[in-house]
Amino acid sequence: MIEFDQVTKSYTQRGARPGGPVHALHEVSLSVGESEIFGVVGESGSGKSTLLRMVNALELPSSGAITVNGVNLAALRPRDRRAQRRRIGMIFQQFNLLANKTVLANVALPLNLHQRLGGLAERGLGSRERPGADAPSADRAREMLDFVNMGAQASKHPAQLSGGEKQRVAIARALVNEPDILLCDEPTSSLDSQHTDEVMATLLRVRAEMGTSILLVSHELDVIRGACDRSAILESGRLTGIAEIARLQARESFESYSERARKYLEGDQE
Questions:
Q1: Is the pLDDT reported for residue 35 higher than 60?
Q2: For residues 16 and 73, which has the higher predicted lDDT (pLDDT)?
Q3: Which positions fall inside the ABC transporter domain (predicted)?
């Protein structure tokens, strides 16, 4: 599904001291299987986010090769690369939702952009909109919002949502194009424990019901251990090992923060 073969990513910094380029990644080789949740852990500056961005060719390798579904995105023409990226969804630490659009419009946005900038042009219609052109996108967006249990919030704006709700909307948006792969860049680092559990439960459901491969970057070891099958360990841009995850027993779920806090503080939770 995803293959890194001796991948190095180097940068030359202006005004840097002599000694050659800086390696964000150095000769990294790993593979992510179909329907696998694969983690990437490491300290800040270890190369985690660089590795993630290279999967959808937002960063290109200085040497080595990356193949996704058997395709080397770096070798494609820009137009073909954009088409391949539609098969890769991505969610971010800060949600990246548009504040002036409703939840439904945020989730439908990738479909509408593809339709207007790609699909219509391919049929010789330029960038003109047709009456009802967005209706299929809205239907698909509602389906994904229902999947992440956010259908009731479709008419709200992001400012009216909690952090966990925003991230579930972001997951719905990432899934609306039915990607084979979902890239997650620190998806829970700005959330409290209750909302972290909600987001991770959603990702586990994505894998279970859609068969999506998930590449999950996080510095939170408990998140990686609670969700992933395997995890790469990065240090200073080098792959120091791939851990087979000893899966934790599923944590008890709670209806509210108050219920969770009481359970923990009263000492009933290990």
A1: yes
A2: 73
A3: 2-261
| d(C-alpha 103, C-alpha 158), whole Å | 7
Cβ atoms < 10 Å from Cβ of 89: 26
Cβ 66 vs Cβ 3: under 8 Å: yes
Reduce the DSSP state of residue 145 to 3 states and report it: helix
Give the pLDDT band (50/70/90) at residue 222. Answer: confident
Tell me how crowded residue 34 is: count the other CB atoms within 10 A of its CB: 12
Of 198, 206, 205, 255, the closest CA to residue 223 belongs to: 198
Task: Output the CATH code of domain 1-11+21-46+56-87+180-270.
Answer: 3.40.50.300
**CA pair distance 226, 216, nearest whole angstrom:** 12
- 144's CB contacts (< 8 A; 6+ apart) are 107, 172, 173, 175, 176
Buried b (16+ CB within 10 A) or exposed e, 148-176: bebbebbeebbeebebbbbbbbbbbbbbb
The whole-number pLDDT of residue 166 equals: 95
Residues 148-174 have a mean pLDDT of 95
pLDDT at 265 > cutoff 90? no
